[in-house]
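SUBJECT: protein chain
CONTENTS: sequence, structure tokens:
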Amino acid sequence: MILGKVRHLQGKLLGQMSVLGFSQKEETFLSTLTLDVLKSSEIEGEKLNYEQVRSSIARRLGIEYAGMIYSDRNVDGVVEMMLDATQNYTQAVDEERLFGWHAALFPSGRSGIHKIDQGCYRHGEMQVVSGAMGKERIHYQAPPSNQVKHEMDVFLNWFNNDIKIDLVLKAAIAHFWFIIIHPFDDGNGRIARAISDLLLARSDDSPQRFYSLSNQILVERKAYYEVLQKVQHSNGDITEWLIWFLDCLYKAIDSTGETVNNILHKAEFWDKHKETNLNSRQQLIINKLLDGFDGKLNSSKWSKIAKCSSDTALRDIQDLIKKDILKKETAGGRSTNYELIKNAGS
């Protein structure tokens, strides 16, 4: 059964993480939470800045690392919600807590250019539609606004008082149930995923997150919306959703092995170079390369990311080449590209 496989994999991962050193575990935790926040927003089509998200989480957890930057209010809001869900996972979820999450997601009281009901249940009707104006197709009609309070009271009573059901299964049911009610003007998907993360933290009995469900949901976003829509129109049998959710969770936990290997390599690199004299710009770019730099690194990109002149960027790069950390890529081209030397951290 898939639930048994998920539970086995959870235990195996927690066992692997328990033998890591403090700094390696902290780095894994920080990377996973950053991924979770980024991907949960990306599912809804909102791309947040990686460095801002990572810095916001690190500040709130008291973790210091090179290259920390200030973060926008909307980034801080998403981070606050996710940290409250995962760090305070033992606490009950009530109306006030959910309203706080919603207000944190929309600090300006707007979703894009639209004013929304913020920090309270919606007052308008809610339909999920697609298609051109006049030819709209209604995918889902949420309960009328005058029923939302009652529906949420029933949901929260079950959420806080049903202790018989397995917590992983409960995470799947709670996710679906919350989406069905669609209690807020906007942000329902992100809050549903935060609720799932809270219950998964309970199932691990740990605030430390080492796998990202939202990252896997993003990979399977089309199937995610398809199964939600299909089961919403069923006669109350949500088996297909439960199987999909558990399969998605299994893949999320299983893929963590690669993340852990990357983090171990990163920790190994900084341990080797703890005495190497590197400026903050070099530390920032090296961290980006170790995290998996998107595209090719050249001096103009260095200059842009590190906010320095092209002369300074070239000096930084030449210095790292002398220190056997960077090398020129062998493939030629109009611009010279650079990459980390593979054994630079070994």
